[in-house]
Amino acid sequence: MPWHAELHLDYSLQSGRSTVQHRHSGPLRILQSLYPEGDAICHNVLVHPPSGLVGGDTLDIDVQVGAGAHALLTTPGATRFYRSTGAAARQHARLRLANGARAEWLPLETILYSGCVAENRLLLELAPGAELLAWDLTALGLPHAGQPFALGSFTQHMEMPGLWLEHGRIAADDSLLRHSPLGLAGKRCLGCLLFASGTPRSRPQREQATELARGVIAGHPLARWSGATSPSSQLQLLRVLGDEVEEVASLLRALWSVWRGHFWGLPGRLPRIWAT
Q: What rounded mean pLDDT belongs to the chain?
């Protein structure tokens, strides 16, 4: 029987401390709030006990960050979309940031098992003065375990309403998309890191952030398969293709650290859960 799980997180700033109120239904929740960087930044780990989604399952995640609060959200492991008999499995995340709020959306990779019918949506709504660092990392199959992505499909939707929309579908049997140099060029991992702001930024500010990104890219083994752009006055993007999850993740983490310092004056301290 399919599972429909929901998680609602509401962050607020109380006497200098970012706190969260939450409610859930179904197998989706957060662990205890952590403060490794002090009271101003609340770290939370999203946990889905079944550890994966099958056809018909739906995860709905709604995150609201109040004025002045700062939330960092991650996961303890990969999100897995397993084989489906026909129905789609869906994960929908919506992040809403109030004036002056900050958020970091840093889930570990999404793994698409052969035969899955998967949909992953990320909706970003930022008030003036709000800022967000977020990434997405997707792996097509597990070829080293003898499980390539040979059947099924994956739909990805990322949107800032009125400013940016990215919608695409990867079918396992679409050899032109998967192997063409104008498509995925035979790579099985794709990553994206973004910095979004609710207030437009000047062209010199955007160019500076883009040059910082290109400097990080230039020193990385995946430089040939990476690129940094600023498609709007409120968005900076890094895109990367690779063969291995860890090599793509290493570039995302490197630039996340640089941009975190550049935009917010904060060190790139990795979430504690990743070291356990």
A: 95
